[in-house]
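Batch job 17 of 40 flagged for manual review because the log was empty.
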Amino acid sequence: MDLAELLKALSESSGISGYENMPAEIISKNWSKMADEVRRDALGNVIAVKKGKGHGKLLLAAHIDEIGLMVKKIDEKGFIRFATVGGFDYRTLVAQEVTVHGKEKLRGVIGAKPPHLQARNEQKKAYPEEEFYIDLGLDVDKVKELVRIGDVITIERSVQKLAGQRYAGKSFDDRACVVMLTHCLERLTEINHNLDVYLVATVQEEVGTRGAAVATYGIDPDLGIAVDVCHGEFPGVRADRGFTLGKGPVISMGPDTHPKILEKMKEVADEAKINYQLEASTSAGGTDAWSIQVARSGVACALLSLPLRYMHTSVETLDLADIKEGGRLLAEFALKADRQFVEGLPCF
């Protein structure tokens, strides 16, 4: 499978939190070629099942939604004021190209007051939220005919191939990890693995890990691994917060991670000569791991992360080698973890 092509297709599709149908359809069709079953639940999660020997149920989750915008007002001149859906840094929005998903798809640009027209004190500050607007190049009557309050807006950005296996684009958080799950699924078709694997492309993670909560409740797994992005190293990032691109995925250590799953992942990686990095993560929440961990009466859980530069911008940057290593690690874990391991999880 061409993982770079899948990454490009998912990244360039539109699907903010609550409106993930386009990337969900792409991944549903892809997974249907390899899984024993693919379905979508009431919230929109895509769930693929790859049967193993039945030694237990392993949930692998990566979210498919992206941060985006929503129309909140059309002013008297036809400019669109908007709200954010998910965690945007407004400083990254100036001069972005966007698509407004109205009665038809409309291309626009995000404008703001240029430096020539700013007061001297304004030039030293970030643009305030109320000064941002979208210009569709249409008069007010046409805008009001085609655009409604509540229409969603997505950033328009093509994936860029950089040097080596590096790529830059939007919504790699977390669709790059959905690609990692896909690579895992591809490898599972070639091996007789112990665990039944439930791969889930979760929805609405960026607004509260909602998809993971309902998917975990419905599947009722014996253990789960959330797969999300962490910060890659770049200028200005503390050494203990940034991880090296191209050196493998990052295994988290902390309250979200069951100690026996942690040790098993490290053991499996070492045996298979899979590159990985380690992160001490002591904060709660922020990824699907939290919702998996506290579902029902509790699920033994772990967090595997993909190093990513410039998170929550339209130029998120990664190394495809880390996606491949992460997919290999997840598949090897499903192969090596058995009934005895699963039954021993409650024994600390």
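Reviewer: the log was empty due to a logging misconfiguration, but the result itself is present. The domain at 68-155 is CATH 2.40.30.40 (Elongation Factor Tu (Ef-tu); domain 3). Unflagging and moving on to job 18.
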